[in-house]
Amino acid sequence: xxxxxxxxxxxxxxxxxxxxxxxxxxxxxxxxxxxxxxxxxxxxxxxxxxxxxxxxxxxxxxxxxxxxxxxxxxxxxxxxxxxxxxxxxxxxxxxxxxxxxxxxxxxxxxxxxxxxxxxxxxxxxxxxxxxxxxxxxxxxxxxxxxxxxxxxxxxxxxxxxxxxxxxxxxxxxxxxxxxxxxxxxxxxxxxxxxxxxxxxxxxxxxxxxxxxxxxxxxxxxxxxxxxxxxxxxxxxxxxxxxxxxxx
Length: 247
Hints:
- It is a single chain.
- The chain is mostly helical and about 250 residues long.
- Helix content is about 85%, strand content about 0%.
- It has one domain (about 55-245).
- The chain has ten helices and no strands.
- The chain is rod-shaped, with a radius of gyration of 28 Å.
């Protein structure tokens, strides 16, 4: 909750500062009699709708950075397959101490510990049942992780759509503005308006490309590590199978 509040505060501060800079740039342009597009002309574009689209694009960019950083934190080998957990469970099961193995899982929460606890909960139902439980729990942990990583894919899909929407709105306003312009100034006004409108698509693509690249990278790593987690669990519980055979 604190992290979300900090993120909202940072985003609000950025938008506020951007608005101040835009107003200053617009004031300077008017004082100099410039006809080129300033930052406020690009963001506002003569329409509140255009400004709302730009705010949505900025929010999407912050979300993309947030989820990318989260991916680097979460999708790691030492996070999904903690060596301390693996060594602790291996040693406990090697000594035939199931309670210590369960306690080790509780002390190291995560996807691997959840899969191990699922195996331990079904240990008295036979090894085949344990394998089915491990497989089912692995699918669940994979789905949970993929939903988290998939937020980057959402950002990658939304950003160019917002950019295209901003360009369409800008083009509509550009052609509508031609009605109030006459003579040779029409071509200059139209070119200036179109160049301003295309900025949303440009920024949208600049957000979308890295978002989709990050999504592909984290998705592939997450799939590989989750499958490795399942194999690790089956390797760790082998002493329990040998104990069952001996009985």
